[in-house]
Amino acid sequence: MSAKTGTIRIGEKTVDMPVRSGTIGPDVVDIGKLYGATGAFTYDPGFLSTAACESKITYIDGDEGVLLHRGYAIEELASQGDFLETCYLLLYGELPTAAQKSDFDYRVTRHTMVHDQMSRFFQGFRRDAHPMAVMVGAVGALAAFYHDSTDITDPTQRMIASMRMIAKMPTLAAMAYKYNVGQPFVYPKNDLDYASNFLRMCFAVPCEDYKINPVIARALDRIFILHADHEQNASTSTVRLAGSTGANPFACIAAGIAALWGPAHGGANEICLQMLAEIGTVDRIPQFIARAKDKNDPFKLMGFGHRVYKNFDPRAKIMHKTCHEVLKELGIKDDPLLDVAMELEKIALNDEYFIERKLYPNVDFYSGITLKAIGFPTSMFTVLFAVARTVGWIAQWKEMIEDPNQKIGRPRQLYTGQPARKYVETAKR
Ligand code: SDX
After folding, report:
1. What is d(CA 261, CA 267) in angstroms, rounded to the nearest whole number?
2. Strand 58-61 with 66-69, pairing
3. Is there an atom of ligand 1 within 6 Å of 332 CB?
4. Is 78 helix (H, G, I), strand (E, B) or coil?
5. C-alpha span between 195 and 170 (Å, rounded)
6. Residue 348 C-alpha to ligand 1 middle, in angstroms?
7. Which of 3, 40, 125, 160 has its CA 20 to 30 A from that of 78?
8. Nearest CA owner, ligand 1 atom 1
9. What is the CA 44 to chain-centroid distance, rounded?
10. What span, in angstroms and rounded, lies between the C-alpha atoms of 77 and 92?
11. pTM to 2 decimal places
């Protein structure tokens, strides 16, 4: 089959460029030679029509509401496996055998402790600091403690850094929470699974044992799976760009955490719960829907809409089911926030404004209600998102570093500022 090409004509210049097809999904036009041939750049702020890289990790079909990790549907991974199985799949590309899974669990478990001086590092923050601010600082500081896994050219060090990140994020997140609430840090226990260990590090206190509820632990593990990776979203693109300069993995993940914090991205789960609380009761929904539609009002319906999904976010459906499971297990019969969320979803999905713009609930819509029921304060919601997304950031970072064609990312611009002009001395201004 002859290779496909795209043709661009700019004035008198016509340029043919190769069109590449992936395994599934849209083709891409390789415009690498465009500037050299025409002197023009492409222009796509927000990257609505731009593929920034080639990847084998995650595929999203926004129109069909499909999410695949290494070809496996999120619905199957979330219902059949656990989070560390998904971590293995994202990192190595295949589902682990029983022996590989047991070895991977062992290796992750034995990296969960952090250098004990990290606890002194936390003392430098105000107690009321937002846990995401603490996480950006603490994760970036890991490079100051683990010099033996910062050489990105060494595959062994890359894998050790990857295991350290996946293993230590729950420990650091729990420390950020404990520091915020003024309770002593709780060390990880090697006989607990990933989600149970995290719950215990967050909620155990020296005065009494913490009883792990297996239904809640399983629900949290599933929530981690739902947030593990999501193609080239803003925070993953940040990690890739930082990594393309050769920065160490801890610094790259800290950059990803910073990007995730934004309310348009991972910060939406915290703001969404605040929005549901502000709406308060079902009868107040219409006025908020009106605000969301009002061009002069910056208010957006948090937890709704997505750059890629123009159908239901498959994760939101699983999140919704998990939300009901957790509330039932905890005996929370009528959560007013859930009543508001379900009514809001029903109204929005039947409103022309949302239908026309294909705005559906995303992964952040039901996660906040679930995490609040489990006992996390809203300020910890995005931290939990970061804990889960670390494996996706790391897998994408490794893929970029190991790409033989990898270059430093350095976009250009459309310059609309002043033309060259002469300096004017102060007296003449
Ligand atoms: C995540 O990229 C990822 O994969 C992210 C993520 C991941 O796993 O990494 O999935 C996680 O970040 C989920 C998204 C969480 N954010 C929110 O819930 C915040 C609320 N959503 C919006 O801010 C918005 O929908 C975005 C940022 C998510 C997507 O914005 P886009 O793709 O740039 O779309 P847009 O802002 O251009 O919106 C298109 C239209 C606009 O109206 P018009 O100008 O065409 O009239 O839809 C409107 C927007 O005003 N719109 C909304 C809306 N989202 C979009 N109107 C009201 N409420 C909303 N939530």
Report:
1. 5
2. antiparallel
3. no
4. helix
5. 9
6. 14
7. 160
8. 265
9. 22
10. 15
11. 0.95
Confidence of residue 1 (pLDDT cuts 50, 70, 90): very low
**Dist. CA 264 → ligand 1 center (Å):** 7
Q: Whose CA is nearest to atom 21 of ligand 1?
A: 305
Q: Are 289 and 347 in contact (CB under 8 A)?
A: yes
Identify whether the C-beta of residue 200 lies closer than 8 Å to the C-beta of residue 217.
no
96-132 pLDDT, tens digit each: 999 999 999 999 999 999 999 999 989 999 999 999 9
By most ligand atoms within 8 Å of CB, the mutation choice from 63, 69, 306, 391 for ligand 1 is 306
- Rounded to 10 deg, the angle between the 83-92 and 194-203 helix axes is 120
Q: What DSSP letter does each residue of 361-401 carry, written as one string? A: B-THHHHHHHHHHHT--GGGHHHHHHHHHHHHHHHHHHHHH
Give the C-alpha separation, 82 to 220, whole Å: 10
CB count in 10 Å sphere of residue 353: 13
- Cα gap 195→218, rounded to integer Å: 7
Cα–Cα separations (whole angstroms), residue 334 to 219, 327, 343, 372: 19, 9, 13, 14
Task: For 229-293, give the secondary structure using H, E and C.
Answer: CCCCCHHHHHHHHHHCCCCCHHHHHHHHHHHHCCCCCCCHHHHHHHHHHHHCCHHHHHHHHHHHH
* Structure token digits, residue 280: 């308060």
Q: What's the gap between Cα 364 and its chain centre?
A: 11
Return the top range by mean pLDDT from 67-76, 116-125, 301-310.
67-76
